[in-house]
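ARCHIVE CARD
CATEGORY: sequence design from structure
SOURCE FIELD: tokenized fold
FIELD CONTENT:
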């Protein structure tokens, strides 16, 4: 995990880091999110936006992305969405330097892996 986004977000973040082109990465993800009409499509892209915003130091967008993921997660009871939401909030906390952020992010990783420890904590 180590602060690295998953999927295509990694490519955007790599572009941003390699060429110092945060604006290009931002433009691409914002354009894709603007075109996404379906909440599931947005939920798949929000972690990418969150990662790009972290790389750019844009805490407002980091928080907004986590909040939107939280809203989608609340509307649809899905383990993957819950994990994505918790991962997002863990990254928010880590970015803001709040102690315990790594615990939230680790819980998200456990959820994605289907960890029995998560099932016990939800019981």
């Amino acid at each position: 995990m180590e602060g690295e986004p998953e999927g295509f977000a990694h490519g955007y973040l790599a572009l941003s880091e390699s060429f110092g082109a945060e604006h290009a990465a931002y433009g691409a993800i914002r354009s894709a999110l603007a075109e996404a009409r379906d909440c599931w499509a947005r939920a798949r892209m929000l972690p990418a936006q969150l990662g790009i915003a972290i790389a750019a130091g844009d805490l407002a967008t980091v928080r907004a992305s986590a909040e939107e993921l939280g809203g989608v997660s609340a509307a649809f009871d899905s383990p993957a969405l819950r994990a994505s939401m918790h991962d997002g909030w863990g990254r928010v906390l880590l970015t803001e330097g709040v102690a315990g952020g790594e615990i939230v992010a680790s819980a998200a990783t456990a959820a994605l892996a289907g960890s029995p420890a998560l099932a016990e904590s939800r019981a």
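CARD ANNOTATION: Confidence is low (pLDDT under 50) at residues 1-5. The helical segments are 8-19, 22-35, 39-56, 59-75, 79-95, 101-112, 116-122.
SHELF: design records, drawer C
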